[in-house]
Amino acid sequence: MLTSEPIYSEYSLEELLDCLQHIDQVKYPERYQVLLQEIDNRKKGIPPKVRFSQNPKAQTLKRGDGVIVKLISELKLDTSRLLKTIFILGCTCTLLTFVFTPQAEGYGNFIATIVFLFLCPFLLIYCIHSIKMGEIEIKSITVKRSDSPGGFWFGIFIYATFSTFIMYSLIWQTYT
């Protein structure tokens, strides 16, 4: 039976003390020494290492966060991958439209419509991604929700409003 070595450097002091009570010193003398060393480290104030399974970039929720932040943060959606996919599809479709559409009257408007049809969902997904990560880039300046909540929500509002307005305009123009 294979057993993996415990990674005591990731354990809290309470977990280490629990392991100390249950470890077989005779069967695992090396583990016992490592365990004692890690307990000594915690008592000296050395914190446990961050586990790789945790996402260090994602911001943790705080008690004062609103319902929208909590709902979006709990989504199991890989927004960064979705952003890349929409961007690649948008570029590909725009290029194909540019190359293969006959250059007749309304040619420029048609290409602009294709570009905006991919830009609007891209910006909306970026807003969701920013809420999940707790930071947004506005004109190459990164604004964190924890540092500047007003600036963060202003950026979300501007991006979401712009993309919704453009999408509404495209749909309105198509059906009227």
Explain what you see.
The protein is mainly alpha-helical. Helices cover 61% and strands 5% of the residues. It has six helices and two strands. Strands 1-2 form a two-stranded antiparallel sheet. A hairpin with a 2-residue loop joins β1 and β2 (141-144). 11% of the residues are buried.
Core attributes:
176 residues, mainly alpha, 6 helices, elongated
Task: Note the overall shape.
Answer: elongated
Radius of gyration: 26 Å
Tell me roughly what share of residues is in helical segments.
55-70%
Question: Proportion of β residues?
Answer: under 5%
Structural class: mainly alpha
Number-wise, the strands total 2
Question: Terminal Cα separation, in Å?
Answer: 71 Å
Residue-averaged pLDDT, rounded?
Answer: 79
Residue stretches low in confidence (pLDDT < 50, at least 5 long) are 52-59
Number of helices: 6
Q: Report the major sheet.
A: 2 strands, antiparallel
Compressed to H and E, one letter per element, the order equals HHHHHEEH
The largest beta-sheet arranges its strands as: 1-2
Summarize the structure in short:
This protein has 6 helices and 2 strands. By secondary structure, it is mainly alpha-helical.
Layout: helices, strands, pairs:
Layout: H1 13-22, H2 29-43, H3 67-73, H4 79-100, H5 107-133, E1 135-138, E2 141-144, H6 149-175
Antiparallel strand pairs: 1-2
Helix pairs in contact: 1-2, 4-5, 5-6
